[in-house]
Amino acid sequence: MNQLKLNILDLIKEDARLPASTIATMLGVQEAEVAAAIKEMEDDHVIVKYAAVINWSKVDDEKVTALIEVECTPERGRGFESIAERIYLYPEVKSVYLMSGAYDLLVEIEGKNLKEVASFVSNKLSTIESVIATKTFFILKKYKQDGIIFEEFEDDGRLLVSP
Questions:
Q1: What UniProt keywords apply to this chain's record, in alphabetical order (predicted)?
Q2: What is the structure's pLDDT at 155?
Q3: Residue 32 banded pLDDT, cuts 50, 70, 90
Q4: Which of 57, 74, 105, 160 is least crowded, fewest Cβ atoms below 10 Å from its Cβ?
């Protein structure tokens, strides 16, 4: 991937609403070159989706988000690929990551309430043949996501004193 594309990705990662004309001005290149590079990256699935980061705590929407550690046995010939695919096809599942460490997959799901999340874990996730164990953690509050701080805390104005 060339430097122009990397620079474009850095800019649209921070603000996906930037028009090609603004990006071209910022990078000192022609707008047509930026538009062509963006189109090519979209076609190659380098750019998969443009999305907004939303502070859901400011919205009257009672959603529950959970992170689930999944320990599983890899399948011969496909490793964790087919297990991850079975999991990410569920509509509740927002993200699936292959991890190093004590567990194999990290699954992020969203439900209407705790009961719905518990039902997903017990009736869908735990029943997959290769799944050995799960551990569920509920997100109580998000302070920062994708580099964006949700709550700005005011400085209390006191001087920092150190011994």
A1: DNA-binding, Transcription, Transcription regulation
A2: 65
A3: very high
A4: 160
